[in-house]
Amino acid sequence: MHSNWEQVIGQERVKKTLQSAISHQRLSHAYFFWGGGGVGKDALAIEFARTLLCHTQTVTACGVCPSCKKMETLQHPNLKLIFPLPGGDSDKNEKSDDGEGLENDVFEEVRRQTAEKAGNPYFHIDIPKARFILIRSIRQIKKESSMTGAEQGKKIFIIFDADAMNDASANSLLKVLEEPLEGVHFLLVSSRKDAVKPTIISRCQMVQCPMLTDEEIAAALIARLRVEEKQAHIVSRLANGNFTRAQELLGNDIAKFRTDAVQFLRSVLGSSSMKLFEEQEEYFTGNKRDNAEQLLTMLMVWFRDTIVVREGSHRNILNVDQETDLKKFVQNFGTKNLEACMSSVERALGLLRRNVYLPLVMLSLSVHLRRILHAK
To answer: pTM of the full predicted structure?
Structure first.
């Protein structure tokens, strides 16, 4: 029988934990789903909510009862989704966040993105100009959690990007969590656990969601998006455990970034520093931060493949169509410390993701790679 939990890629341990809590009726009033981006935290929270609201009250949602039908669009009256919204937190014009207190264009964007989230739980709701979860959103939770619902059964509040609560909204939620109500459950989701108040975390049952494996991502790309097998394996490697990232990569010109990565390496190995700056100006001036992340990811895969070729495992290379270039590179540089090159790129990628100044990251990487590959 098809299970609603199959919507979630991997995360088998977490699924079993949540199902066990349901079957033994040991439900916490608040859960905190945390882990890296795109690992399925949102998807787990949604499927947990779907199961708790299903009329069958078993460890899987039936998919056919009135409650499950409403959950298909995430429009269940006993479900409330909270996420960052634009606007201030003044008490003036304090209306509900179900649309009444939002500008028309914002309301339409919320509705559009919620519909997309219903169809793809790995889609990240990101409303333009939204920076915080507003205190009025949390006050609405407090109000709705204590009211008699239009439908019987549990009430579920999912707070996406829980780390986006400012002090006022976090303190307001804390008061709600301190006075749990029967049949009301809060599912907080965050990629930045350290940015959430410890007092809030202490009142939640923690649900850690590990990174997805390359195999899990590749299988999902093939099964769900009909991606060709070779491309699925390349993309899954580049996604770094993040299925949302894998979906985004499919929309980008991966071939271009792979070519750019090889060209960048050629420039680094060239004789002239001036020529390197001319050829790679966009990275050394800091204008292409997003592109830099793609380029470094491709460069990391390139060095990974050179190590594979050097070890004689040609069948395991990801850049299959660049095998000739890889062999040529290994002939020239196979005696150098290719593992150190890969580590340097990985370090640069980490610095970039921590918002270190792009030109500094790229300059430092170029110096390191040049030193390693030109070592006597």
So the answer is: 0.73
Cβ atoms of residues 59 and 23 within 8 Å: yes
User: Whose CA is closest to 141, among 183, 94, 91, 97?
Assistant: 97
Query: Sheet of 205-209: strands edge to edge?
Result: 79-82, 155-159, 184-190, 30-35, 205-209
- Non-local CB neighbours of 368 within 8 Å, separated by 6+ positions: 341, 344
Task: Identify whether the C-beta of residue 30 lies closer than 8 Å to the C-beta of residue 201.
Answer: no
- Report the C-alpha dihedral over residues 330, 331, 337, 341, rounded to 10 degrees: -40
- Final residue in a domain of this structure, among 194, 210, 226: 210
Give a yes or no: residue 292 inside a domain.
yes
Element (H, E) at 68: helix 66-71
Residue 106's domain spans which residues?
4-210
Domain count, the chain: 2
Q: Which residues of the chain have pLDDT under 50?
A: 91-100
Task: Kindly provide the b/e burial profile for residues 81-99, where b requires at least 16 CB atoms within 10 angstroms of the residue's own CB.
Answer: bbbbbebeeeeeeeeebee
